[in-house]
Amino acid sequence: MKRKYFSFYLASAVKGETIKNKQMKLNTKIIHAGAEPDPSTGAIMTPIFQTSTYIQSGPNEHKGYDYSGAGNPTRTALESAFAVLENAKHGLAFSSGVAATDAVMRLLKPGDEVIASSDMYGGTYRLFSKLWADFGIKFIYVDTTKTVNVNNAISNHTKMLWIETPTNPLMNITDIKEMADIARSANALLVVDNTFASPYLQNPLDLGADIVMHSATKYLGGHSDVIMGALMMNDDELREKLFFIQKTSGAVPGPFDCFLVLRGIKTLHVRMQRHCENGEKIARFLASHPKVKKCIGRVLKIAKVTKLRNSKCMTLAE
Ligand SMILES: Cc1ncc(COP(=O)(O)O)c(C=O)c1O
């Protein structure tokens, strides 16, 4: 049996067959995301292409890569994996989650307004309020868990809705589909920081978001040994703009880090399943413990949310 599998992989490598990600179920997709046998050797795992530059047979005549700031084969494999995980057409990798967020902000111009969740990762708030606000971008922070607040904050200058759901650390949940409807009618982009749900629990692009952002440092990497960020999107023009920003501002991850995240992703489903089970047990234990005076509803709600992992959107349980 083992031999059979081996020869299947060998045949795939020899014939250069591609793995058809779209036909795979979630767990299989997670394991095989971005994996293509290396065409030069047949290696089943993506090699670490530890190179900054590439030989050119003539000026601008190369095999698709000229400088690793713009592209590197290990990063290309990871970027395809990012896309597969979020049912996206495109993925882009950055040197950190914050660098990915920073790249998204570079889509804006002075005078543009961003409506952002009042509760979100502190580093994102710091980036918005201490750096980007100085360049003429106006940030309006509202409680996005209540759609009415977002509707009230929309103006002619709104160019982006930035939501994080669930939030770090309070686990507040915003309805992605409702936000997508508002963004569409305001002709604004909806960006979702999906770090805490991970693609195992939620796929914002399927719900109408334009860009998904991840701190791949967390669940995608999964082993606390790498800092990295990811953006996923479907729109080709948006991908070109963000690719240009990635290449031009240079906040790209190195090939070894890309390899680590490619490897980390392979166990995403197993780790997330265990996180969900453990979280639910702890929440139930705390809620029924006589010494726990108040168990904030949120904890129980997360426990219920984890059960919805096959649904398309994390929502608060009744
Ligand atoms: C929800 C969320 N978004 C973004 C970030 C920033 O990511 P990084 O630390 O990879 O720059 C973090 C980091 O903790 C986070 O928790």
The CATH homologous superfamily of the largest domain is called Type I PLP-dependent aspartate aminotransferase-like (Major domain)
**Number of helices, where a helix is a run of at least 4 consecutive DSSP H or I residues:** 12
Ends apart, CA distance between termini: 48 Å
Order of helices and strands: HHHEHEHEHEHEHEEHHHH
CATH class of the largest domain: Alpha Beta
Shape summary: globular
CATH architecture of the largest domain: 3-Layer(aba) Sandwich
Average pLDDT works out at 88
For the secondary structure, the number of strands is 7
Which spans of ≥5 residues are poorly predicted at pLDDT below 50? 1-19, 307-312
Radius of gyration over C-alpha positions, nearest whole angstrom: 21 Å
Number of domains: 2
How helical, in percent, are the residues? 40-55%
Strand neighbour order, sheet with most strands: 1-7-6-5-4-2-3
